[in-house]
Specification:
Blueprint: E1 2-6, H1 18-32, E2 36-42, H2 47-51, E3 55-64, E4 67-75, E5 84-89, H3 105-122, E6 129-133, H4 140-146, E7 158-162, E8 191-192, E9 195-196, H5 198-205, E10 208-211, H6 214-222, H7 228-234, E11 238-240, H8 267-282, E12 290-297, H9 306-317, E13 322-329, H10 331-339, E14 348-352, H11 356-365, E15 368-371, H12 381-387, E16 391-395, H13 398-403, E17 415-417, H14 422-437, H15 439-451, H16 456-473
Parallel strand pairs: 1-2, 1-6, 2-5, 6-7, 7-10, 10-11, 12-13, 12-15, 13-14, 15-16, 16-17
Antiparallel strand pairs: 3-4, 4-5, 8-9
The chain binds adenosine-5'-diphosphate and alpha-D-glucopyranose.
């Protein structure tokens, strides 16, 4: 099969969060399974894209509703990443330092999707299926069916994968003029509550809709930021497929970012070496358990609860543990986390920013990873952490519900909160410290989580089965 993925992120070329990791891995593991999986991504000015050389493979003009745009398609002829990565270059629109966050993001991503489709429709060999990811690519199924300029793509099946239903790319109807000329009587397929809602349009128009865990799929029906009735209507098309992890990138046995590589046989010394470096670098106490948080500092991750929960943990439990935070996001949360540093007694620190190498060192050197997320469609952090022998302390939601079992259950290996609240976080930290004190139990749990298999080798087959059934149906 030839499958094209279209997305706004793809690791290592452009990554903001887990979307990038998953799209990159899907391309790679489809090829490893004997299929041709490629990825189309905007050509941003990220470090990776700027530092590599790319070959120009196509230049053309696409017709946006507001006028023609010139675009160019670049690729890495050596397929260094193990799959074909195609970059869409549109001068002035996509060539920015950041992936998101610009006032004209709606126009940028409509232009990206239009150029991607224009190139596919002008290519001799058409893909068997197009898998679009999140709202930045979710207008593609509509455009393939209802923009006359793409009518030759009408019969190609499409899959929309929802990594995060909170973000829907909503825009004013004024933006409808940017979309290439479309069948105007089909406006209802773009509209949701009197606005253009790309995610809602994708849910209606795609052949199938997947999301990144079964647990999150069930939640979407009742809590999907206004799309509940739409999920109810389109439920027959929806599937939950749990993400995997790229076990080559996330492997404590080979990871160059670690102080010392390790397997489950020598994890004690391996983890100790990384913890020691973290404690030296961030002024923490090596003797105490180390809790880390890695991620976007936003409400979905319940990062707003962190500052007060950490202070109150110290008050209620005592200064028996260290906390180290790595993340960036809402300015107020960043400021509060920075402010707390002055009260540290060698037991608290925060690195505000994005740092891939530090994240690897933290997955290895930590004893526990905190994820009190209010919403977590899958969550990759807990999967990476477990592979590195770090015990997850998570809220019982979405993918966290599906991938972590509480130590109170038979064969359990993590700590689960019943909901995201300050008290639940503090109580979970208390339970984790108890677990840390029981050295035999700790050893056994670390061994157990390092042996769990959340690899793509296992989960890529669910995507392949879905693609095959859609192509056969077609
Ligand atoms: P989300 O996609 O919602 O942000 P995930 O758990 O799926 O959450 O994936 C987050 C990914 O982003 C992980 O690979 C994590 O290590 C990475 N990440 C998040 N914040 C940072 C940061 N500040 N520095 C380095 N990596 C980060
Ligand atoms: C999203 C979700 C996260 C998921 C990731 C990859 O960003 O918030 O839970 O793991 O996508 O699918």
């Amino acid at each position: 099969m030839q499958i094209i993925h279209v997305a706004a992120e793809c690791y290592p070329a452009a990554k903001v969060g887990g979307l990038g990791d998953v799209v990159g891995a899907l391309g790679k593991y489809l090829n490893l399974s004997g299929h041709r999986g490629s990825v189309i991504l905007p050509m941003y000015n990220t470090k990776y894209i700027s530092n590599h050389s790319w070959e120009l493979v196509f230049t053309s003009i696409a017709q946006l509703g507001i006028g023609d745009i010139e675009y160019r398609i670049f690729t890495d002829p050596l397929h260094t990443l193990g799959y074909e990565l195609f970059l869409v270059d549109i001068k002035g629109l996509l060539d920015r330092d950041q992936v998101y966050g610009y006032e004209d993001d709606s126009t940028r991503f409509i232009a990206f999707q239009t150029a991607a489709l224009d190139w596919i429709s002008k290519s001799e060999q058409k893909p068997d299926l197009i898998n679009v990811h999140d709202h930045h690519a979710a207008l593609i199924p509509f455009m393939m069916q209802h923009c006359p300029c793409f009518s030759d793509l009408k019969n190609i099946p499409t899959v929309l994968t929802i990594h995060n239903g909170q973000y829907q790319g909503v825009m004013e109807w004024g933006n409808s003029v940017v979309i290439p000329k479309w069948d105007s009587w089909r406006w209802g397929l773009l509209d949701w509550n009197k606005l253009i809602n790309p995610l809602a349009s994708g849910i209606r128009c795609a052949s199938r809709v997947t999301t990144v865990s079964q647990g999150y799929l069930k939640e979407l029906r009742h809590h999907s930021n206004g799309l509940e009735t739409l999920f109810e209507m389109e439920w027959h098309k929806c599937r939950g497929i749990l993400n995997g992890i790229d076990t080559e990138v996330w492997n404590p046995e080979t990871d160059k970012a670690l102080a010392q590589t390790y397997t489950e046989r020598n994890s004690e010394i391996g983890k100790y070496k990384s913890k020691k470096i973290l404690c030296e670098q961030f002024n923490l106490d090596l003797e105490k358990p180390l809790f880390v948080f890695i991620g976007r500092l936003v409400g979905e991750k319940a990062a707003d609860l962190l500052p007060q929960s950490l202070i109150n943990s110290f008050h209620k439990i005592g200064r028996k543990m260290n906390f180290l935070i790595l993340g960036s996001g809402q300015t107020e949360i960043e400021n509060e986390l920075n402010y707390l540093k002055q009260f540290s007694q060698n037991d608290y620190n925060a690195y505000i920013g994005y740092n891939e190498d530090l994240s690897h060192l933290m997955y290895a050197g930590a004893d526990f990873i905190l994820m009190p997320s209010r919403v977590e469609p899958c969550g990759l952090n807990q999967l990476y952490a477990m592979r590195y022998g770090t015990i997850p302390v998570v809220n019982n939601t979405g993918g966290l519900h599906d991938t972590v079992m509480d130590i109170g259950e038979p064969n359990g290996y993590g700590i689960k909160m019943s909901h995201a609240s300050e008290n639940e976080i503090i109580f979970s930290i208390y339970r984790a410290i108890e677990c840390y004190a029981d050295k035999e139990k700790l050893k056994q749990v670390i061994k157990q989580i390092m042996q769990l298999d959340f690899s793509w080798d296992k989960s890529i087959h669910n995507y392949i089965d879905l693609y095959e059934s859609l192509i056969l149906e077609n």
